[in-house]
Amino acid sequence: MKLFSNKTLLALLLLLSGFGYITSCTHENDVLPAPASNAVVINRGNAVLLPGTMTKGDTTQWKLDKAHSSVLWQTNYVGLAGLLTGRFNQFGMHNVTDAEMQNYVGSGQPLMDTSWAFYENDPSKTYFSGYVQMNQANTGEPGRDGGCLLTSFGTTPIVAGTQNLTVTNIARIKTTKVEFDPLSEDYIVTLNLTWQGPLATPLTESIVGKLKYIRRATVNAGTASAYDVFGLQLTFQFNCRDYGVTSTSISDNVQIECNMNFNNK
Question: Is 238 helix (H, G, I), strand (E, B) or coil?
């Protein structure tokens, strides 16, 4: 009887030990590490930036720093080779009306660059309009700029001392909607592009682009000459064939990059 009891006890101990080992291997009570997150961290401020009347010396009013801004374009040569690139020498941020489409005498900005507003945390209030003078395209090759480009664009040569904002020489953009980009700190912009080009009348198409805000910062901080700056960078592309451009030297799609810098001097 005693022998039987010892064997029974030994078997029970072995059974319990095996069960304990199996239980320990399941890790049921272990704290698992948190899963890696791929969520984009987006940090936005509350900047509100407005042009006012662009009064010099009023630090509450922001001015377009045209001398340090640019409107650039690029497209593939013959649609297959490397890039053709250029810029527009004359441009502005003004909602040009039909009555304002005329020639202006002078080399400065013919219209005030006040057709914009930027609300960092409320894109529904952000808007802007802009224009370029097509005959002011500058590729660095005078023969091209004053020759085949004018024909392709359906416009006329530059007249010295004149800013040409007539309907055949102006391309305009105007936002219809600005939204947060859910994947970055940037903004998704829907805008109208209006240009006549070689067509008989102007054409307006809706285009989607991206807007980047380069945050406000102080130049010469701590000095009497300190002032603030910020930037807006807009990129989009359009099909030039829609606007009557038939030149086979360029690709269908033309990419545009607008780099607008502002200060409050």
Answer: strand
Rounded-to-integer distance, Cα 4 and Cα 54, Å: 104
Global pTM value: 0.83
Distance CA 249, CA 152 (A): 10
* Residues 104 and 165: beta-carbon distance below 8 Å: yes
For 174-183, which contacts have Cβ atoms below 8 Å and span 24 or more sequence positions?
A: 174/95, 174/128, 174/129, 175/126, 175/127, 175/128, 175/129, 176/206, 178/123, 178/124, 178/126, 178/127, 178/211, 179/123, 180/123, 181/210, 182/40, 183/40
Distances (CA, A) of 3 to 10, 60, 99: 11, 99, 115
Within 133-213, residue ranges assigned H as helices are 142-145, 148-153
Q: How far apart are CA 218 and CA 265, in angstroms?
A: 11
Topology (CATH level 3) of domain 48-263: Lipocalin (2.40.128)
Instruction: Report in angstroms the alpha-carbon separations of 191 from 72, 85, 128, 256.
Output: 18, 23, 9, 13
Give the 3-state secondary structure of residue 52.
Answer: coil
pLDDT tens, 16-66? 454 444 444 444 455 556 555 567 789 899 999 999 999 999 999 999 999
C-alpha to C-alpha distance for 219 and 231, rounded to whole angstroms: 13
Collapsing DSSP to helix, strand or coil, 89 comes out as coil
CB 230 within 8 A of CB 59: no
Identify which of 245, 256, 248, 249 has the alpha carbon closest to the alpha carbon of residue 193. Answer: 256
CB of 240 within 8 A of CB of 254?
Answer: yes
Spell out the domain ranges in the chain. 48-263
How many CB atoms are closer than 10 A to CB 218?
Answer: 11
